[in-house]
Specification:
heterodimer; A: about 170 residues; mainly alpha; 4 helices; about 85% helix; B: about 200 residues; mainly beta; Immunoglobulin-like; five-stranded mixed sheet; 10 strands; about 15% helix; elongated
């Protein structure tokens, strides 16, 4: 919640800077640095959420493209920060934060959806296997009973052959 | 054929049938271990080939190489490729111990790759504020993909190899999802560069 609130503020500031034509003034590295740090944490969180979604079986290809965009912005923000361009660093970090937060949300939805789908597939295949095996065993037993009767009957119907050893 | 032989045949058919019908569920429950998990890092020349690498370099000229990363880790991986610049005496990664260079990166490139994916990054670099005095050469600024860094690296004349040798190298770092801390993946590639005076 704290991260979300902080992120919203950063995104708002970044958008304000971008669309109003003015520049978000960051007075020093002390102020810009936590923003870039938060953006880095947001990218980590987005990565972890995407990884969990992938492990749950979701298709995360679209999210990876967005993650790479967030990573590029984060690298650029760090470069701007180290070169003293603090306003630009803050704007890029804000954009990065916005993208990362969005990825985390989408990854959560994808993970839940993939888990539901996986559960559905599991129960379907389990039902198929249990019903299939049970039916198969019943059919096989019936076949075995029929076969044994027929086999025994055949054996009993057989007439003994008498062979003589006549020289 | 005896009835016991027929019983064995029925039992075998039964077992095969049960395994076949149970295989979809078994496939979901059993997870066999995958192959070896590793990452790749490579550097290619300007023609995307392992040739024509920049070697004799001079100030004010842009040089292009491609740095590639390949992911075979079995899952989505967060990479950080760190570019560093050193002279012959400074810290270099140690592949035996698995430690990175202690130098700070001049440029880093972060990327996310899925298992089986690879990515190549064009890396343009140039040098400025290069000076030569006596048997020493000094590089003041290294620019990598438009990012300038003050380095002030000096090397002495290498009488054996006849040149002023610097090294540009790239280290591969991987983010550990559990701790959110990047760790050196013990993969690095490097280019030896002989700094020459402009003609």
């Amino acid at each position: 919640m704290k991260h979300f609130l902080m992120g919203s503020i950063i995104v708002f500031l970044a958008l304000l800077g971008l669309f109003s034509g003015s520049i978000v003034v960051v007075r020093g590295a002390d102020q810009a640095s936590p923003i870039v740090g938060d953006a880095g944490s947001a990218v980590h969180a987005a990565f972890n959420a995407t990884l969990e979604a992938e492990r749950a079986g979701a298709n995360v290809s679209d999210l990876i493209a967005s993650l790479n965009e967030a990573a590029r912005l984060l690298s650029d923000a760090k470069t701007s920060l180290s070169s003293g361009n603090l306003s630009e660093a803050a704007i890029m970090a804000g954009q990065c934060f916005g993208i990362a937060a969005n990825i985390e949300r989408q990854a959560g939805v994808l993970k839940a959806s993939a888990k539901n789908e996986a559960q559905s597939v599991f129960w379907t295949s389990l039902t198929f296997s249990v019903v299939g095996i049970a039916s198969f065993i019943v059919v096989l037993l019936l076949l075995w009973v029929w076969f044994r009767r027929r086999f025994t009957g055949k054996v009993l119907d057989m007439k003994p052959e008498v062979a003589s050893n006549e020289d | 054929m005896k009835i016991e032989d027929c019983r064995v045949i029925f039992a075998t058919v039964g077992l095969i049938g049960m395994l076949t019908l149970g295989s979809p569920t078994l496939g979901l429950m059993l997870h066999l271990p995958g192959g070896e998990k590793f990452s790749e890092l490579w550097v290619l020349g300007p023609g995307h080939m392992a040739e024509d690498y920049p070697f004799n370099v001079t100030a004010g000229v842009n040089y292009l190489v491609y740095v590639g990363v390949g992911c075979h880790t079995g899952s989505l991986t967060y990479y950080d490729v760190q570019m560093k610049f050193r002279n012959e005496t400074e810290s270099f990664p140690n592949s035996t111990v698995g430690t990175p260079s202690a130098l700070a990166p001049l440029y880093d490139y972060r990327l996310f790759l899925e298992d089986g994916e690879s990515n190549e990054l064009p890396l343009t670099f140039s040098f400025s504020n290069v000076s030569f005095s006596g048997n020493q050469s000094t590089v003041g600024i290294v620019t990598i993909n438009g990012v300038q860094s003050n380095v002030a690296e000096s090397v002495s004349w290498d009488a054996v190899n006849q040149g002023y040798y610097y090294q540009l190298f790239m280290e591969l770092w991987v983010y550990d999802p559990a701790s959110n801390v990047p760790r050196f993946d013990n993969r690095f590639v490097s280019l030896w560069l002989n700094m020459t005076a402009p003609v």
